[in-house]
Automatic annotation (TrEMBL):
This is Heavy metal transporter. Residues 261-284 are annotated as: Disordered. It comes from Arthrobacter cupressi. Keywords: Signal. It comes from the Bacteria. Residues 1-23 form the signal peptide.
Length: 284
């Protein structure tokens, strides 16, 4: 009898320990602190990853190309260039070869790219790069590293090639050529979103976007950016900027991206011909 009691006590202790381990593991798995924030772009079977700030800069560079109606190839070249020059970060310093280099493309005021303040403006620097690129004859048929070097005049002309695949993947999604192809894994929003901020950001980025806000939702259901590749360009741009804009959900053409699910784009009942953006609610 004593041995039976001892066995039962041991089994009960083991059961309690197992339950405690399960509970702790479940809590840890759901903990926001364990979420590694990142953005990925998928082309075919290949997946490429950027940090969230890099992805936001990639989205900005690409949106300038979309607004200018430049081909996706131009965005690919620009992204590969900026990745090599600054790791897609708007840095305010240069290197030994170009001490006055600044910004996403490390453009040098001493070489006529503009003032220091101008080249530190990501929109200005992106436009400056594209202004140089479109002057290159047949840049669309050139090797990416050759086209980039023709614009940049770098001391390391072959270095751009290593970022070609990444540039192509993010350009494909951010120009809307690939649908439901850009995903950002993010922690929960730490503040309430403002739909008016989303509308303002869309207008600043893409121009006259007929975006309408109601409650926590912003809809783009008419015009160039409501259907086709341009709509996916806008939707992917929004996902890439979801962290700063406190966006929790984006819907387009039968697909939904939900921030909290961490499952990427999922098939849903989202209607075609409309981009719907939802921002986070105030915390109670």
């Amino acid at each position: 009898m004593r041995r039976l009691r001892r066995t039962l006590t041991l089994l009960l202790a083991l059961a309690l320990a197992a339950g405690a381990i399960y509970a702790v593991t479940t809590v840890l798995q759901r903990s926001e602190t364990l979420v590694t924030e990142r953005c990925t772009a998928v082309v075919g079977t290949a997946t490429f990853e950027l940090a969230t700030d890099q992805a936001a800069n990639a989205a900005l560079i690409t949106s300038v190309a979309v607004r200018r109606n430049l081909p996706p190839r131009a965005a690919t070249i620009a992204l590969a260039t900026a990745m090599q020059e600054s790791s897609l970060r708007n840095i305010d310093y240069g290197d030994q070869a170009g001490p006055d280099s600044r910004g996403l493309f490390q453009q040098r005021p001493s070489q006529g790219w503009g003032t220091e303040a101008q080249v530190m403006d990501p929109v200005y620097s992106s436009n400056a790069f594209y202004n140089g690129l479109v002057k290159v004859p047949n840049y669309q048929s050139m090797e990416i590293t050759e086209a980039a070097q023709t614009v940049q005049r770098s001391a390391f002309p072959r270095a751009y090639a290593q970022h070609e695949a990444m540039g192509r993947a993010f350009a494909s999604s951010l120009t809307g050529q690939s649908s439901a192809a850009l995903d950002c894994t993010l922690r929960a929003a730490d503040s309430a979103g403002n739909p008016d901020n989303v509308v303002s950001a869309l207008t600043k980025t893409f121009g006259a976007v007929p975006a309408k806000s109601q409650g926590r939702t912003v809809r783009v259901d008419s015009g160039r950016y409501s259907t086709g590749p341009a709509a996916w360009a806008l939707a992917h741009w929004t996902v890439a900027n979801a962290k700063s804009l406190s966006v929790t959900q984006v819907e387009l053409d039968g697909h939904t991206w939900n921030r909290d699910s961490h499952k990427g784009w999922q098939e849903s009942g989202a209607s075609a011909g409309s981009v719907t953006i939802t921002v986070s609610a105030p915390r109670s």
